[in-house]
Amino acid sequence: MSDADPPDLGPIATRILHEDDRVRIWEQTIAPGEATAPHHHAHDYALVELGPATVEVAPVEGLPNPHFEKAFELPAKRGSVYFVPRGSNEVARNVGDTPYRAILVEFKQPA
């Protein structure tokens, strides 16, 4: 894939639960063996894990990714919270045998 032929980018999660001028709150559900569409994180966000699952996060081929160069596994644990800076182009795939569930809170305005 070349820069002249970028992939279509999708939403960062499954559905929006709430949005106002400051935040956008998403629900994320990924069934075992399923993956998100390639997507771009335009805002810093907090990721709140809702249950145990294993997700592989991979960069989108042909697009820059300032935070990681290779795919990695994220063993999600209920109650884990991560702060993630904006800028990633990525795909998340559920590589476990339980549904992946999380809440993403995008911060639309800088702190």
Question: Which helices and strands, and how do they pair?
Answer:
Blueprint: E1 15-19, E2 23-30, E3 39-40, E4 44-49, E5 53-59, E6 72-76, E7 81-84, E8 89-94, E9 100-107
Antiparallel strand pairs: 1-2, 2-9, 3-8, 4-7, 4-9, 5-6, 5-8
Can you walk me through this structure?
It is a single chain. The chain is mainly beta. The chain has one domain: Jelly Rolls. It has no helices and nine strands. It has strands spanning 15-19, 23-30, 39-40, 44-49, 53-59, 72-76, 81-84, 89-94, 100-107. A hairpin with a 3-residue loop joins strand 1 (15-19) and strand 2 (23-30). The radius of gyration is 14 Å and the shape is globular. Residues 1-5 have low confidence and may be disordered.
What percent of residues are in strands?
Answer: over 45%
CATH architectural name: Sandwich
In the sheet with the most strands, the strands line up as 1-2-9-4-7
Uncertain segments of ≥5 residues (pLDDT<50)?
Answer: 1-5
CATH classification, class level: Mainly Beta
Order of SSEs, N→C?
Answer: EEEEEEEEE
- Note the gap between the termini: 35 Å
Number of helices: 0
Number of DSSP strand runs:
9
Question: What do we call the CATH topology?
Answer: Jelly Rolls
